[in-house]
Write a structure and sequence with these properties.
By secondary structure, the protein is an alpha/beta fold. The protein has seven helices and five strands, in the order αααβαβαβαββα. Strands 2-1-3-5-4 form a five-stranded mixed beta sheet. The chain is elongated, with a radius of gyration of 26 Å.
C-alpha cells in the first residue's frame, strides 16, 4: 500500500488536482476496488463477531394469513413478557403467502415458498399457523409435526386470523424443534393467556 502511494505521488507531482484524480482512476482503479473489498470484508467480519448473532429463541410463522407486522410485533412482545424473553428473541412472521396444489394466493411469491421450506429444513421454525390443506401438503412433502394440532378458534388469535370455509386453520409445532419448552409455553400462552389487546 505504501509503495502504491509513493508511486502515485511521484507520477502525479507535476499534475493539478483534476489531472491527478483522472490518472489515479485510470491506472489504479483495480487497486482501489481491491482495497474497498478488503475493507468491506473486514467491516463485515467485525460486525459478525460483535453483533451478528441474530438467532431467535423462538420462531412462529403464519402461512396464508393477512400480513400484519403490527400484530406480529405485538404478539412477540406479549409472548416474550409471558415467557420471560425479550421481544427481539422472538420472531412472529406472517409474510408467508404460499401457493400450492390448486390453491393460488393472489400475493404469493416463489421466494415465500422457498423461504418457508428452507427455514424449516434449517430448523429455524418452531411453530406454524396454517390452513389444514397446507398442513396436509407439508406432510406429503415429508414434513413431520408434533401430534397435537390446535384449532386457532381455541386460541387468543381467533379474532385476528381468517379461515376459509372447509379449510380450518391450526397451530402446529415442528417435530424436530430445538425449543420444545418454548413451544409448550407458546401453546399455553395462546390457549390460556390473556386476549391480545
Amino acid at each position: 500500500m505504501g509503495k502504491w502511494i509513493r508511486d502515485i505521488r511521484e507520477k502525479t507531482a507535476d499534475m493539478d488536482r483534476e489531472q491527478a484524480f483522472t490518472y489515479v482512476m485510470s491506472y489504479y482503479w483495480y487497486h482501489i476496488l481491491a482495497a474497498g473489498i478488503l475493507l468491506g470484508l473486514l467491516v463485515l467480519l467485525v460486525y459478525h463477531i460483535g453483533w451478528g448473532d441474530r438467532r431467535k429463541e423462538f420462531t412462529c410463522v403464519m402461512v396464508n394469513q393477512e400480513i400484519d407486522y403490527g400484530r406480529d410485533k405485538k404478539l412477540a412482545e406479549e409472548f416474550g413478557a409471558y415467557a420471560g424473553l425479550e421481544a427481539k428473541e422472538i420472531l412472529i412472521d406472517s409474510d408467508y403467502q404460499i401457493s400450492y396444489r390448486d390453491k393460488q394466493m393472489e400475493n404469493a411469491k416463489e421466494s415465500s415458498y422457498e423461504k418457508f421450506f428452507f427455514n424449516w429444513q434449517a430448523k429455524e421454525i418452531d411453530a406454524m399457523v396454517m390452513p389444514e390443506s397446507f398442513y396436509e401438503y407439508c406432510q406429503e412433502q415429508g414434513g413431520v409435526f408434533m401430534e397435537e394440532k390446535i384449532p386457532v378458534g381455541m386460541t387468543i388469535l381467533k379474532d385476528t386470523l381468517t379461515e376459509e370455509s372447509g379449510d380450518p386453520v391450526y397451530l402446529v409445532f415442528v417435530a424436530d424443534t430445538k425449543h420444545g419448552k418454548l413451544c409448550e409455553e407458546f401453546r399455553r400462552y395462546l390457549c390460556g393467556g390473556s386476549r391480545m389487546r
